[in-house]
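Following up on my earlier thread - several people asked me to post the actual chain instead of describing it. Fair enough. Here it is, all 262 residues.
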Amino acid sequence: MNSVQSLRRENRVMPLYHQVQQLIRHRIATREYPAGLQIPSEHELGRELSVSRVTVREALRELVRENLLVKVQGKGTFVTMSPQVGLPPLKYSGFLEDLYERVKKLEVTSVETSRVPVPEKVRTLLHLGTDVREVMRIKRPRHIDGEPFSFTVNHLPIEIGAGIDPAALYTRPLNEVLEHDLHIPIVRAQETFEAAPADPEVAGQLAIPVLYPVMHVTRVMFTEKDQPFEVVETYYRADKYQYIVNLTRVKREGKWTWHSGP
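Reply from S.P.:
Thanks for posting it. Predicted structure:
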């Protein structure tokens, strides 16, 4: 579904002008609207997105306030020469220590814990038997520089989740609580990355339109004896997330290959 169709859908999460604002912001971030470009007029944008000129004008006004756009009298609206849309890349080389540092840079704005029926995906990833009926679910949106950045949903066995103090999660990474407070050794993690459209809950948490693309990361945490014990699903705003892997050419057994790492 394209951007126009997405905007046409009923969306009670945010005002329509804000949806237009986020769409233009995304086009600037992805350089569809590069620095210095004159963007389409209010009339053209309104026609493309099937919204009123008043809606477009309000969206553009907000982007001008953010110094992403500049209006030139008698000429039109232009992308500023150095639009600061994205955030500095978060270094992540594949080590658990970098994972801890990554989340420490973010501000947890709320913590919601509850016992829920076991989702089938979680049951499969944690190898839970049919006799296990519930797991503990923890939801946390995170902000950086005062803006939504990610939304994380953790699933843990009840016997582990019941021992977690929700108040601690405002200031400490959950992995740190698991290791230091509950003495659960974390030996490795397996991550899967995929692009996904934001559902209403994710869209509301990240302040983006429903169906707006997000980076969806599923992480399975393993303890001793390679036992999976936690499923973490994190949704990142696509315009604020960068994943960087350093690749180095190395020679092994007489053959050149790539090595990932710092």
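Residues 21 and 59 are 5 Å apart (CA to CA). That should answer part of your original question.
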